[in-house]
Design a protein that fits this description.
Protein name: Lysine decarboxylase
Shape: globular
Number of strands: 16
GO molecular function: carboxy-lyase activity
Radius of gyration: 24 Å
Distance between the termini: 67 Å
Keywords: Decarboxylase, Lyase, Pyridoxal phosphate
Number of helices: 14
Order of helices and strands: HHHEHEHEEEHEHEEEHHHEEHEEHEHEHE
Oligomer: single chain
Strand content: 5-15%
CATH class of the largest domain: Alpha Beta
CATH superfamily of the largest domain: Type I PLP-dependent aspartate aminotransferase-like (Major domain)
InterPro entries: Orn/Lys/Arg_deCO2ase_major_dom (IPR000310), Orn_Lys_Arg_decarboxylase-I (IPR052357), Prn/Lys/Arg_de-COase_C (IPR008286), Prn/Lys/Arg_de-COase_C_sf (IPR036633), PyrdxlP-dep_Trfase (IPR015424), PyrdxlP-dep_Trfase_major (IPR015421)
Helix content: 25-40%
Strand order of the largest sheet: 1-9-8-7-6-2-3-14
Cofactor: pyridoxal 5'-phosphate
């Protein structure tokens, strides 16, 4: 059996459970003997594996045994200098690699379409972000990859110490990451990559984009639960082989930011998922990609939406549809849901389907849903298409109107959206999913931004701002 097929942590946990140990320790369910409710009987067997740091099971925060062995195997598979298991999702990986790379006052280059966890990491670090506007595809209404020329301009203008980028984005779009990494390293800066949606890029197949680690990134975060079959809340943090800094500090940050009682179910699923990825053959991947093409073929027959064609700079397992004029994504999604088909997420104009790392087996059910959808919406009234506000002037590089440290000292007030133009946002305004801030905390609110917020509200897009329909918190005064 190949070394990468081993699952040392999961194997040790299984051995421990099979010994039928008597619990005089936490957790309080006592190996599944104490259930919070009768309906939880279904979890009884699983709860036997919900263990704590017992003799022989190692400790994530001082890994020397089976957890260390499991992380070493992960590092060998992903070809990293070192790989860490994360039980607080990619979020904690983004926070840790930012804290490792920049400190208070350091300049860091950040595309505007990053996940909110990156913004939180910037705030915690006290770094000075320079925001770079991604390229934009007006025909698809999608932000793309940053332009290399803009990145070079940023390094020629500011003393940037690091850059962070999302690769791929939520729709599977990538870009020329290799050239960006070369540019960043030419300026002796660090490249941080939020590859939360790209753990499968570590598999070798010509139809999959290259992984950020293989392209020379210094730090890479990958969710295990998004595209690999791991439990929700699991991720990997990789240190690239070219990184020359001291890695002891990042371990300290992970110790600070992660739970002191990490779930063995989560850690074991990271171990098992690595073994799963390592066991994928070229034939396995060919079958998966053929299945994804079959799903695309069915979805391409939708009358109410247009399929975005796959290309060399997109993940073939991400399938995005753009709603056609006169229809709404909510109407389309509702019909799919009535057939028991749930999408990854919808925006006011896009529907995202995520294909897994195994052939899809319910193509007939999907075809039935598409046929029903075409029939239902054919009879539905065609509504006016909502106009999307786009920036009239592109600003490649911008800074916050107020830095995070100053914001802490400022009082805030809550005002109506229409009155907020030219005020400084005291909170980030985040449509969710996917969790990309539309307005950044510390950014000056413009008329275009306010109109965009109102349009998304009208389109019934969810926000992680409870009172967004009534108004927004802004800075009351600046000394």
């Amino acid at each position: 059996m190949s070394k990468q097929r081993r699952m040392p942590l999961w194997e040790r946990v299984q051995t421990f459970v099979n010994e039928e140990p008597v619990s005089f320790h936490v957790p309080g369910h006592k190996n599944g003997h104490i259930l919070p409710h009768d309906s939880w009987k279904v979890f009884r067997d699983v709860m036997r594996y919900d263990l704590t740091e017992l003799p022989g099971l190692d400790d994530l925060h001082q890994a020397e045994g089976v957890i260390a062995e499991a992380m070493t195997l992960a590092g060998e598979f992903f070809d990293s200098q070192e790989t860490f298991f994360l039980v607080n999702g990619s979020t904690v990986g983004n926070l840790a690699m930012i804290l490792q790379s920049v400190s208070h006052g350091d300049y860091i280059l950040v595309p505007k379409n990053v996940h909110k966890s990156v913004i939180h990491g910037l705030e915690l670090s006290g770094a000075h972000p320079i925001f770079i506007e991604p390229d934009y595809d007006a025909s698809l209404n999608l932000a793309m990859f940053p332009r290399l020329a803009d990145v070079r301009q940023a390094f020629n203008t500011y003393p940037i110490k690091a850059m962070i980028i999302t690769y791929p984005d939520y729709y599977g779009t990538t870009g020329d990451l290799a050239s960006l990494i070369t540019c960043v390293h030419e300026h002796n800066a660090l490249m941080l990559v939020d590859e939360a949606h790209g753990v499968h890029f570590s598999l070798s197949h010509p139809d999959l984009p290259s992984s950020a680690l293989s392209l020379g990134a210094d730090f890479v975060v990958q969710s295990a639960h998004k595209m690999a079959p791991a439990l929700t809340q699991t991720a990997y943090l990789h240190i690239g082989k070219g990184y020359k800094g001291d890695t002891r500090q990042i371990k300290r940050y992970l110790d600070m930011l992660q739970s002191s009682s990490p779930s063995y179910l989560l850690m074991a699923s990271l171990d098992v998922s690595r073994a799963f990825l390592a066991s994928r053959t070229r034939q396995d991947l060919d079958q998966v990609l053929a299945s994804a093409k079959a799903v695309r073929s069915v979805l391409s027959t939708l009358n109410s939406a247009t399929l975005i064609e796959a290309n060399k700079q997109t993940d073939p397992l991400k399938i995005t549809l753009v709603v056609r004029p006169g229809y709404t994504t909510h109407a389309v999604e509702t019909v799919f849901r009535s057939h028991g088909i749930y999408l990854e997420f919808i925006t006011d104009q896009h529907l995202l389907f995520v294909h897994g790392l195994a052939p899809f087996t319910e193509l007939k059910k999907l075809q039935e849903a598409v046929t029903d959808l075409n029939h239902r919406l054919k009879k539905a009234p065609i509504h006016d298409t909502m106009k999307v506000v786009r920036k009239k002037v592109r600003q490649p590089l911008t800074e916050l109107a107020l830095d995070y440290h100053t914001l802490k000292m400022c009082p805030s007030i809550f005002i109506a959206l229409d009155d907020a133009i030219d005020w400084i946002a005291f909170e980030s305004i985040v449509p969710y999913p996917p969790g990309i801030p539309l307005v950044l905390k510390g950014e000056r609110l413009t008329r275009e931004k306010i109109e965009a917020i109102k349009e998304l509200i009208d389109a019934k897009v969810n926000f992680q701002n409870q009172a967004i329909c009534d108004g927004v918190f802004v800075v009351k005064e600046i000394e």
